[in-house]
Amino acid sequence: MTFLIEYLVLGAFLLAIVAAMQAIAARLVIPEATALSILGIAIGGSYFAIASLAPHIAQFFLAPLINPVLPADAYLWLFLPPLMLQAALAIDVRHFLQDAAPILLLAVVAVIVATVCIGVALSALVPYGLVVCLLLGAIVGETDASAVIAIFRDVGAPARLIRLVEGESLLNDAAALALAGVLLAMLAGDAADATLGSGLKILGYSFVVGAVVGLAVGRLAASVLPLLGGIASAEAAFTMALPYPLYLFANDMLHASGVVAIVCAGLVINSLGRTRLSPSNWGHLQMVWDQIAVLSGAIVFLLAAIQVPHLLSGQRWHDLVLLAVALAAALAARLLVLFIMLPALARMRLSEPIPAGYNLAIAWGGLRGALTLVLAMGVAQNAAIPKDARRFISVTAAGFALFSLLVNGTTLQWLIRRLGLNRLTRQEQAVQNQALALSTRTVDAALTRLNAAFHFDRKTITDVASEYRRDLSIGTAVPDLESTVNEHDRLAIGLITLATRERDLVPEYGDGVISVRNLDAMMRNAGQMIEAARSEGRVGYHRVAREILGLPLHYRTAKALYRLLRFERPLAAAMAERFELLLCRRAVLERLREFNGTRLTPLLGEPLTSVLDSVIATRIVSADQEIGELRTQFGSSASALERRLLLLFALKQGRSGLEAMAAERVISKDVFNRVRKAIDQAWTAATRRPRLRPQQLTHVSAAMQPVEHVPRGDTPHRSTHDGP
Predict the structure, then answer these.
(1) Global pTM value
(2) I need a surface site. Which of 146, 207, 462, 713 has the fewest CB within 10 A?
(3) What would the 3-class secondary structure string for 349-380 be?
(4) Which of 478, 481, 547 is nearest to 714 (CA)?
(5) Residue 542 burial (10 A CB sphere; 0-12, 13-18, 19+)
(6) What angle do CA 337, 338, 343 make, to 5 degrees?
(7) Which letter does DSSP use for residue 552 in this model?
(8) Predicted confidence (pLDDT) per residue in 81-131, tens digit
(9) Exposed / middle / buried, residue 445 (Cβ in 10 Å: 0-12, 13-18, 19+)
């Protein structure tokens, strides 16, 4: 019991330290990892002095940190799984896939290149052999994105730069761990793993099997989430049950990469979870995992940093020379990847070009974090490696991490500003100024309402409004949006904004209002329109808008089965699903039209938003044509399907209203629970779709004979065409 109490108090002590260091790092505008490393090194270095002055405090609080009971490997399986799952849940999957080639290059190839460069450079200077030097290269080859992203965001670095670093961090830990595992096996004298060919085979197996297992588990988890009754705490608890069993199953039972398995599972849940959970529940899930990741990352970093003085003990001048060589080799390897290999990807059309300024920021921002220190601790405890080699790896790795955190981490913000990566383009400045002007008008109206309620002095209101304008005057004034951005680009901005808003609206039709298949289709279609508008402008947007009204493969298959074999159920389900999809798409388009009029008109101007309104109107007309044809084909079942959809919307609105009244204490919790139970029962009954009758299918079959169509202008083809 005493042992348990001591560790509970120690846990509270660590959490308090983390909270204090997060506040200090934010105040000093330095990476949190740098602040934690400085404190950890200070604690580790002053332990003996504290023990002589306050032995009881040192024994109770510091001794378990200086001489932990757990082995170094325990830090990995305790803290790495939740960190990796949170990173996969937080990333923008669509942009991740868009930049998949450069991300994989940075995450996997860059680690291998750094391992080779550092290993070869040091092997000529030390007597420990190439494999030992390669192991050191693998340990320091990974980068810690969490230490840099906060700086990127603080100085307003471009979104793509942040995405590249986030994507790199997802997989480079797995690459470093896999490489280090292969090299450790070679050092341990395992004959099966002692050749380069077998090492590469193990590495490939580890990644492929880990990815397959992760994708399968992620898909299964995404299908389970909707079955949890929309209870946010249950959904969060279920995802919390995933990382450790998955990591141990992949790592220990299949001898694959547990990190890759967790990352792939997280990416699948990220991609599918947004349509299977309500927007509020998805936000709650991400908030829970953000907090878990922040605490896990900070604690493991602090614990690892405390060991740095011990790892660096007995360092000699010769070690500083080796450290300098390792740092130079690592920088050269990173520059080789960023300035030679990445441009080659762009020339092969596998990636969009990445500006040189981005590459310099990524190169200098390659901070080494907790994983480097934990792996160095593991090597220091590994009796299979000769003592001198252990000391060489642990000392150099600890010095490498320390240098990157204290030098790179503290100068990265200056470099980003020096490169001008935090400056907006003239177009972005014009949009910003327009937004600030709208914000100012909104604030003026709000101050007027406050004055009516509180009867402030009119001069006070005027002074506050003037101070608000002065505080928001960012940078130099530029011309307005219309004179700065040409009409084609402004139209593209508007179309991208509409498609992005459409994607954000789709999850609101979840919780059973429409099927998961339809939600996924609408999310996928919105993503296609964003990319088409970005690359082709209005032409691309219209092209995708036409294509998404085509009949999907499962619909055409169901129709063929009915014609050939008279299978009714697949066609009935496919037609009901299509009718439901078109009705919800029509509802989203109406909301887009309102968004365009109320939000985009003040920002983009009335002439442009009139064009955007006509684009939305064209899509609405096309959807209405498709809906009208299906109403004719459905007959009386169309009314039943529409009634079901309307009832689900009514029940959803009723539930939201009750939740608001319960939150405002208008009704008691007991009353809310009773009424909520009745609504949930009605919801369950209403989610069942009415089935088509056989005579209606016969009518449908006759109405769906192929008809040749030639699309006119922006008007989509009719549903009688089989579509792409």
Answers:
(1) 0.75
(2) 713
(3) CCCCCCCHHHHHHHHHCCCCCHHHHHHHHHHH
(4) 547
(5) buried
(6) 100
(7) P
(8) 888 888 888 887 877 777 888 888 888 888 889 999 999 999 989 888 888
(9) exposed
